[in-house]
Amino acid sequence: MVAVRDNTPRFTSEEYFAWEEKQLEKHEYIGGEVYSMTGGTVNHSRIALKFGALLDNFLSGSSCQTANSDCRVNIVESNDYTYPDVSVTCDERDKTTTKYITYPCLLVEVLSQSTEAYDRGGKFRMYRQNPVLQDYVMVSSEKMEVDLYRKTESGSWEIINYQAGDTIELKSINLTFPIERIYEGISLTPVVESS
């Protein structure tokens, strides 16, 4: 999904929730301002779906919950809310809320050209405020490439780049899988649309 600044007035978080319930599309809420979540590409949608299904199937029967891009994430100790492409929470505190989760251990963003810099920069800075977050995954929708930002025992973040033939390891949920699982059946060659 692509976030685009709306020309709406600044809202309190309560006003944002009431306002968004009446909207046809989703909006992230950062610093009192709302950002439309516009549609992405077919590859973006399919990769997010495959990644979410993989995680949900793996976690079936556990106390963890997988959510898609319809689930808001509250940035810890703020009134800011985002819509990552996929999130996983295993935290009991998130089972008592209905409009958002706050303590995901794993977040996935499928990258687009227009949001990649924000996903790697400002959005990741916000997500790092969460003491429970262990894995932040950024997935390319144009080539077989995944960047995993993993929190180390010392609290710093390391980056691991995965490419074709690699096995991805998500320590937050004890899952390993070949990168090809999330790209299966997806054409990564640019398609020229006819007019």
TrEMBL record:
SUPFAM superfamilies: Restriction endonuclease-like (SSF52980). InterPro entries: Nuclease_put_TT1808 (IPR012296), Restrct_endonuc-II-like (IPR011335), Uma2 (IPR008538). CDD domains: DUF820-like. This is Putative restriction endonuclease domain-containing protein. It comes from the Bacteria. Residues 14-173 form the Putative restriction endonuclease domain. It holds the Pfam family Uma2. It comes from Chamaesiphon polymorphus CCALA 037. The lineage of its organism: Bacteria, Bacillati, Cyanobacteriota, Cyanophyceae, Gomontiellales.
